[in-house]
Model the fold of this input.
Amino acid sequence: MPKLRCVYTDLKDHSKRTYFLLMVYNNYMELKFVISKQGLFITALLKNADIKGWVDLQNTLWDKYRLGYQLLQGNSYNVFITETSQDVLEKAIEEVKLLMEEGMKTAEFNKLLQTAQEYKKWLENEWLINKEKVEKELKEIIRTDLPKDIFTVYVMGNLVHIGRHLGDHKVVWGHKEDWPNYSLVYLAHEYLHSMFSYSDLDHAVIELIADNELRIRLNQGGEYFTCNGKDVGHDNLRELEKSMLPAWSAYLYNKSMDIRRFLVDQKAKIDNPEK
Ligand SMILES: [Zn+2]
Done:
């Protein structure tokens, strides 16, 4: 079913401009790309950034604002388990503010931000050019409707490596292109997380769909589980994925089956291995 999207159209009504809300059919996966400066800083702080001097900056901020840093890390034990815990939350929050103010003023963060802005332009264009193709292939693989919502992609650039689905149609993405169409494949992967659970089985199926089948279709060649000499997908899911390969190949040929049915069958096989 096509998606409905609201757009305003500007119809000039003599001297007065009148705006009409039109409902327009939209057949494409809708991704909106944005940069959250604070989100970029915190992600880089917690996950590292491929920038000269970044580790030194992390160390400086760690030495100066340890309590705030630990709060950002989610290290509740170190923050709160203390004999004098009354003021600890206020102090930690104050340190988070100071840490962020100081960190976001640095040349290192400025470079990170500039790179992310350039990468965002590239990624938006990459998506614009290819989204029709990605959607067509995905629909062909899963044979069910795609979500109708607009997804927000928080762009982190290619110096911070992260791919995550945050829920509520929000995705975090930043990575260098390890192989052709890398970002497209993983944008699809994160997008698919909104349609499935976080069980290993569902995650393995997402990897069969996006990391492998979609990648090979977009690249017009390649093989499952490896690309440019690198392993593809999570190591802990590979065995499960390999065990599903015969059924997966049959599924790809059997156009009357959709991905939901495939998952139900695979789950039944796991629950009743004897049958
Ligand atoms: Zn995933």
In short: The chain has a mean pLDDT of 90.
